[in-house]
Amino acid sequence: MTPWILITAGIAILSSAVSAILFTARARKKVTYMLDALEDNETNFRFREDKGMGRRFNRTLNRLRKIFEREKEEIRQQEQYYGQMLDHVQTGIAVIGNDGEHVEYCNAKALALLGVSSLSSIRQLKRINPPLADAFSKVTEGHKEKAGYSNESSTMTFSITASSAEIRGKNVKIVAFNDISSDMEENESASWTRLIRVLTHEIMNTVTPIASLSEALAKYAGDNTGQNTPDMRTGLETIAASSRDLIKFVSSYRDLTHLPFPEKSAFYLKDLIEKVMRLMDEKFSSGNIVCTYTEKSEDILLYADREQISRIFINLLRNAIQAGASHISITAEINTAESVVVNVSNNGMPVSKESREEIFIPFFTTKPSGTGIGLSISRQIMRMHNGSIRLTGSNEKETTFTLTFR
């Protein structure tokens, strides 16, 4: 073998070795670049596949990029899917980071219940409602917390539970909460309804024969003469009259336990309010009372029992008149949760702090001639319409009752 052949072979081997080294270095750089980009969640890169000794390697890298990009898109779609599912559940859900402060996620129901457009931290919740923020922080897995909460449209009681999870290597607390105000009101109303049924049954059974017997004896005493006949007749007539009054009084409470099932139809709220205001016009005029209605959302439509809803508004307006109001304001709007919210406000005497928790209880009244069933019936009607009525404020300037139709 001649020296030239050996030299040529050596140069070829050396050239191949150098090329391999250079290719390996470039390949290492490309892999490092790709890994750095993917680690930064960046997939907007592509290696050339049209020429050069590294085109096959570049094609492999581009294929890996496409696989990563496809997996990333599938994960994004899954997160979007689960997010949409959570936004349609009727439970508020908030995910709190392991620092106990940062709120990483809130579903649509949570924001609607809290009456906020976004929630990023527990500190933000503390500014809105400190007791609720404390309940969110204290609640642990396997235990429940309760907390009251008030926003612009209503007052609620939340039942709060929690569970722990690990998301992307971080420990988080998933807090779930529901408004249980309606359940509490329903249980309270059911208890009062059972009590009223028992009371009315027993009182009617006892009083009815007394009334009948007293009337019969009064008639008998009137047909006979005697020294004590006038006194006897007067006494029996008094007993009979008192019995009739008691029967009438007890009968009024039957309304609480025998409310008819709502006959619902669609109607514009504005038409109903205007009709109620016309019915009350004489009382407004005699008391120099100004009553206004403002609709903050256009063409508010209700699907409800007209007569029963009218009864609620008439009762609230009468209460305002009896409280000495000179101005009554009714406002209505559709809130972010697509519920119809109606506020009935007046500048009459405020409800005392002692009475605020009791005004919806049957038999309770602050009026000498009141029966104490008006607001109880109103709450029962609203519950039958899947709604609520609450006293949301009362001070020297204004007393406001809020009706929410869900």
Automatic annotation (TrEMBL):
UniProt main location, coarse: membrane
**UniProt entry keywords in alphabetical sequence:** ATP-binding, Kinase, Nucleotide-binding, Transferase, Two-component regulatory system
Q: Which reaction does it catalyse?
A: ATP + protein L-histidine = ADP + protein N-phospho-L-histidine
> Among the record's GO biological process terms, what is one?
osmosensory signaling via phosphorelay pathway
| Molecular-function GO term, any one | phosphorelay response regulator activity
Query: According to its record, what are the GO cellular component terms?
Result: membrane
Report if keyword rRNA-binding is assigned.
no
Please give the coiled-coil regions recorded for this protein. none
Domain Histidine kinase span(s) in chain numbering: 198-406
**Annotated InterPro entries:** BphY/WalK/GraS-like, HATPase_C_sf, HATPase_dom, His_kinase_dom, PAS, Sig_transdc_His_kin-like_C
Any Pfam family from its record, for instance, is PAS_8
Localization recorded for this chain is: Membrane
- Enzyme Commission number(s): 2.7.13.3
- Protein name in UniProt: histidine kinase
Record organism:
Candidatus Cryptobacteroides excrementavium
